[in-house]
Amino acid sequence: MFVVDLVGGIGRRARTASTAGVVAVRLSGAVLRAGMSLPRAALGQWWGAFARQIQFTAWDALTLVSTLALLCGAIIIGEANAQAVRLGLADTIGRIVVAAGVREIAPALTALIVAGRTGTAIAAELASARALGEADALDALGVDIIQYYVLPRVLGVAVAAMALTLVFDFATLLGGLLTVQLLQQMSTTAYLESVRLALSVSDVYEAIGKGLLNGAGIALVSCVSGLIARRTATEVPRAVSRAMMWSSVVVIGVSALGIMLRVMS
Amino acid sequence: MSAILAMTDVLPKKATVEWAEPLTLNVPQGTWTLVRTTPERSHMLARILIGAQAISSGEVVVLGRPIGKVSRIERRLLLSDMGVLLDPAGLLSNLSLVDNLVVPAVFRGSKGISLPRQHALDVFEELGIADYAKRRPADVPEDVRQIGALGRAIVGNPRLLVLENPMASVRSRVADDVWRICRALAPTAIITSFRRDEMLYSVADDLYLWDSAGLRRAAVEASV
Q: Domain spans of chain B?
């Protein structure tokens, strides 16, 4: 199987970042090619899998993400407000919540939630499919495993993670607003004005970009982690653990990439 | 008769004690060939025939193409002309039996989803398991699961059928009918098995025994 052939050697031969990078690029290329050659007859089935992935990743996690984001906004404002007021820097509150919450914490925390909920589920599902011989049977019937298993999951999780990141951003700002009102050390208007001045269109683009990259990356490494599992039941938990570990690397990598790009620009 | 499958001096890439000598085997068009051997050889042979396992020497030509050397896309096209049943059968556990026939067919590029579904239901009707068509694999008896998996292999009227240990838990009275239908839909087949199964002997035109002494042809009647 292509994925097994491509990735299988890494663990045994060369655990270098460059090898992993080459595999990631080749896999991404394979996913793109699979998308372009998807048979028209399979579109209905494919959309079903894509929609289910979005529902599981975004809709089913909406309450959890919103609650966490509200708390996150409250914590940032609660802590920042005390320091800022003491130092006479109350007008920087908006900048702090945008820089810390919107740009960094929201994409990273959302991605970690997606990795914990969806990435592990994907890895477990695909490792089970390997253990039960389902993936091999599909391959033997001439079905492209990447089209069937990987493509709907990568695109579905990418879209869902992007949407969740935007929801997280909004809820963080809302949490900050509620905390400001509760603490009564700063007017609502001042807070909103401070956020408006700090927030730019590029922040929204960055959130969208990070959400898409995190989602696609998490889904891709989770799919690979499941599909390279050996054919035993004990491989399922190992695949899940591997998916979580690789997903964490993806999340940190995307955050670092964001900072690098911002510094360079 | 021309060979629809030709293996010449084949050795698997993964070194094994059991498969140490090169293997040569031809399957002529219109015949059903049974290779009875050990579980390990049976497993490897089936996978080499479909290009899922690499070889270190020799050549495997399936339907006129060297399946181990073609591109991924070409291999998929070749496989879509074949019907394959591996052990384990690997029916998709989240789909009904009928969808297990339909979904692979549409992902291989069949035109329109309604045609394969009706065709799949017709095949199930012929195989006598239509009552189970809408149930998931976990909710049906083992023999129905196996017949369903066989149905998945033959639903596209394959030019070549590759079967690994088929029909182990199917009652012989039912199996006769199932094999008759399979032969009608797939004129050429190769079966690899480690079982001493009279039913398989009776369905095969050619029988090969493959043990430590090598591959040798045996009389089907004598084995039965």
A: 3-223
